[in-house]
Amino acid sequence: MLPLSLLRTAQNHPMLVELKNGETYNGHLVSCDNWMNINLREVICTSRDGDKFWRMPECYIRGSTIKYLRIPDEVIDMVKEETQVKARGRSEINKGRGGQNMRSGRGGARGAFGNRGRPAPLARGGGNVGRNPQNKNKK
Amino acid sequence: MASKEGEKGKGSQSAGDNKEKRRKESILDLSKYLEKSIRVKFAGGREAAGILKGYDPLLNLVLDNTTEFLRDPDDPYKLLEDTRALGLVVCRGTSVVLICPMDGMEAIPNPFITQEG
Amino acid sequence: MASGLENYVNQTVSVITSDGRNFIGTLKGFDQTINIILDESHERVFSSSTGVAQVVLGLHIIRGDNIAVVGQIDESIDSRLDLGNIKAEPLGPIVH
């Protein structure tokens, strides 16, 4: 099971997100993308030391800044069907007109990252960005 | 760019293609925040608030009447009460960590106290 | 995928994250960036003054960026550990 399939399945569920900077965000997942960027609604933000709290109606979080997400236990049982449906859809694309899709994917400026196999380089690049704050944090 | 992707998507109408198209679209619609005050957090710990004047798909932002929330010099993630006015600024998208509307954002007392005992 | 993690799927694993925390759980999945799904997970909190505390956490997605170590747990050995009497300094975060 892919982590991002689980995350997609967790849409509309409550979750806790801890960022690399130590802040935590409790809210309902509205949407997510292949980079793990997420939209939350009805959010409570907790400061790194757990001493300050903010309420936010909604927020957008860049995936590369996430440390981990805590997801309700029952969500894992809801994933299976969706992955199978998705896998079937993908194989149809590959058989039917995979070549065409690949080409149009590469043609678009950001298209190369739209394909499922591709997010790795970008995600890793994002990780480097995220390391800097920890570095500063450490002195 | 977005419209080009859209046209390509229309050329072939299977469900799989629609899904591909949806994935390429940003999950963040910043147009709803235009001319509104938003809070932005950056990699490294800086935080600012300003009126969103413009943006691009890479999350570069133009903010007007911007205030930066100053931080403890010993702890770049600890906010102080102080702010400083920055005026009109361009925020680099790659360093944007979080965006939320200022409208409805408020500091609150610990809401978890009952659960945690 | 050639990360080697496929052999650990549905096994109990110990994950050390770059902030020095230790998560134990069942590896349910992973991807090419080593984002992982840990089910029925708990955190082991080490302390030099009291025994190891186990905090039940549940279902987790841990982002690959922060993962330092994923190791398989031998449950027969692990269950013999007397965690309540193990005292150890917590790990520090990775310093870049």
UniProtKB/TrEMBL annotation, chain A:
GO terms for molecular function: RNA binding. Its main location: nucleus. Residues 112-123 have a biased composition (Low complexity). One of its GO terms (biological process) is mRNA splicing, via spliceosome. Keywords: mRNA processing, mRNA splicing, Nucleus, Ribonucleoprotein, RNA-binding, Spliceosome. Residues 2-75 form the Sm domain. Transmembrane segments: none annotated. It is found in: Nucleus. Residues 86-95 have a biased composition (Basic and acidic residues). GO terms for cellular component: Lsm2-8 complex; spliceosomal complex. Residues 86-139 are annotated as: Disordered. InterPro entries: Lsm4, LSm4/Sm_D1/D3, LSM_dom_sf, Sm, Sm_dom_euk/arc. Pfam families: LSM (PF01423). LSm subunits form a heteromer with a doughnut shape. Belongs to the snRNP Sm proteins family. Binds specifically to the 3'-terminal U-tract of U6 snRNA. This is U6 snRNA-associated Sm-like protein LSm4. The gene is LOC113523155.
From TrEMBL, chain B:
Residues 25-105 form the Sm domain. The keyword Magnesium does not apply. The keyword Acetylation applies. InterPro entries: Lsm7 (IPR017132), Lsm7/SmG-like (IPR044641), LSM_dom_sf (IPR010920), Sm (IPR047575), Sm_dom_euk/arc (IPR001163). SUPFAM superfamilies: Sm-like ribonucleoproteins. GO terms for biological process: mRNA splicing, via spliceosome; nuclear-transcribed mRNA catabolic process. Component of the precatalytic spliceosome (spliceosome B complex). Component of the U4/U6-U5 tri-snRNP complex, a building block of the precatalytic spliceosome (spliceosome B complex). The U4/U6-U5 tri-snRNP complex is composed of the U4, U6 and U5 snRNAs and at least PRPF3, PRPF4, PRPF6, PRPF8, PRPF31, SNRNP200, TXNL4A, SNRNP40, SNRPB, SNRPD1, SNRPD2, SNRPD3, SNRPE, SNRPF, SNRPG, DDX23, CD2BP2, PPIH, SNU13, EFTUD2, SART1 and USP39, plus LSM2, LSM3, LSM4, LSM5, LSM6, LSM7 and LSM8. The lineage of its organism: Eukaryota, Metazoa, Ecdysozoa, Arthropoda, Hexapoda. Residues 1-10 have a biased composition (Basic and acidic residues). Its main location: nucleus. This is U6 snRNA-associated Sm-like protein LSm7. Pfam families: LSM. It is found in: Nucleus. Belongs to the snRNP Sm proteins family. One of its GO terms (molecular function) is RNA binding. GO terms for cellular component: catalytic step 2 spliceosome; Lsm1-7-Pat1 complex; spliceosomal tri-snRNP complex; U12-type spliceosomal complex; U2-type prespliceosome; U6 snRNP. Residues 1-24 are annotated as: Disordered. Keywords: Acetylation, mRNA processing, mRNA splicing, Nucleus, Ribonucleoprotein, RNA-binding, Spliceosome.
UniProtKB/TrEMBL annotation, chain C:
Residues 1-76 form the Sm domain. GO terms for cellular component: precatalytic spliceosome; U4/U6 x U5 tri-snRNP complex; U6 snRNP. Keywords: Acetylation, mRNA processing, mRNA splicing, Nucleus, Ribonucleoprotein, RNA-binding, Spliceosome. It holds the Pfam family LSM. One of its GO terms (molecular function) is mRNA binding. InterPro entries: Lsm8 (IPR034103), LSM_dom_sf (IPR010920), PTHR15588 (IPR044642), Sm (IPR047575), Sm_dom_euk/arc (IPR001163). One of its GO terms (biological process) is mRNA splicing, via spliceosome. It is found in: Nucleus. Component of the precatalytic spliceosome (spliceosome B complex). Component of the U4/U6-U5 tri-snRNP complex, a building block of the precatalytic spliceosome (spliceosome B complex). The U4/U6-U5 tri-snRNP complex is composed of the U4, U6 and U5 snRNAs and at least PRPF3, PRPF4, PRPF6, PRPF8, PRPF31, SNRNP200, TXNL4A, SNRNP40, SNRPB, SNRPD1, SNRPD2, SNRPD3, SNRPE, SNRPF, SNRPG, DDX23, CD2BP2, PPIH, SNU13, EFTUD2, SART1 and USP39, plus LSM2, LSM3, LSM4, LSM5, LSM6, LSM7 and LSM8. Plays role in pre-mRNA splicing as component of the U4/U6-U5 tri-snRNP complex that is involved in spliceosome assembly, and as component of the precatalytic spliceosome (spliceosome B complex). The heptameric LSM2-8 complex binds specifically to the 3'-terminal U-tract of U6 snRNA. Plays a role in pre-mRNA splicing as component of the U4/U6-U5 tri-snRNP complex that is involved in spliceosome assembly, and as component of the precatalytic spliceosome (spliceosome B complex). The heptameric LSM2-8 complex binds specifically to the 3'-terminal U-tract of U6 snRNA. Belongs to the snRNP Sm proteins family. This is U6 snRNA-associated Sm-like protein LSm8. It comes from Galleria mellonella (Greater wax moth).
